[in-house]
Design goal:
Distance between the termini: 36 Å
CATH class: Alpha Beta
CATH architecture: 3-Layer(aba) Sandwich
Oligomer: single chain
Number of helices: 6
Radius of gyration: 16 Å
Bound molecules: flavin mononucleotide
Structural class: alpha+beta
């Protein structure tokens, strides 16, 4: 296992996966467990996670993406849905409009790091037709699909992506 810094540095978006290497169920469970270990507003975990492995559902999800290549041939796709109603019951409008989205986003980010830690690759796909994903997965009206995370054993060496200089981002006061 890598330490945290190595794990973060080794996370790159993977868009091609080994076709003959399914992901072990215990690895999927470990990734979900780490996603659920993320912080959430009031500890409410205002999200739902769908773990999709059935080929016909993966195809429907792929078709819902603007770029149908971006999920690659991933054997597993996690769909993170925010649950605004759950957050709003305690936190009102701020829970509905902000915390539920943040909860789901952080959980998805943790899932990507956990995937690295168990030797998997992943990609975050945000550019998809929410309605089509909702129908395919039967996501209820009070949840919103916000991120698809493809996951599997990498079949590509990912390109290094640049980062903005920290001095452009950080305001040390
Ligand atoms: C909110 C969000 C939306 C994204 N949407 C897509 C997408 O629709 N398709 C895609 O291939 N990658 C998508 N990505 C992945 C980014 O392109 C990628 O993280 C970025 O280029 C940096 O590369 P790296 O992940 O390898 O560091 C998304 C990432 C985030 C965080």
């Amino acid at each position: 296992m890598w330490d945290f810094f190595e794990t973060v540095r080794h996370r790159h978006s993977i868009r091609q996966y080994q076709p003959d290497m399914p992901v072990e169920p215990e690895k999927i469970s470990a990734v979900i467990e780490m996603a659920c270990a993320a912080p959430s507003a009031g500890g409410l975990q205002a999200y739902q996670i769908y773990a999709i492995q059935k080929p016909e559902l993966r195809q429907k999800i792929t078709n819902a993406c603007t770029d149908i290549a971006c999920l690659g041939n991933a054997p597993v796709v996690l769909c993170f849905c925010s649950h605004p109603k759950r957050a709003s019951e305690r936190f009102g409008e701020r829970g509905r409009n902000l915390y539920a989205l943040q909860d789901a986003t952080i959980a998805a980010a943790y899932a990507q790091l956990a995937a690295v830690s168990v030797g998997l690759g992943s990609n975050w796909v945000g550019d998809f037709d929410e309605g089509a994903v909702r129908v395919a997965l039967e996501v209820p009206e009070d949840c919103r699909p916000i991120a698809l995370i493809s996951m599997g054993y990498p079949a590509e060496i990912p390109a290094q992506t640049a980062r903005r200089p920290i001095r452009e981002i950080l305001h040390s006061l």
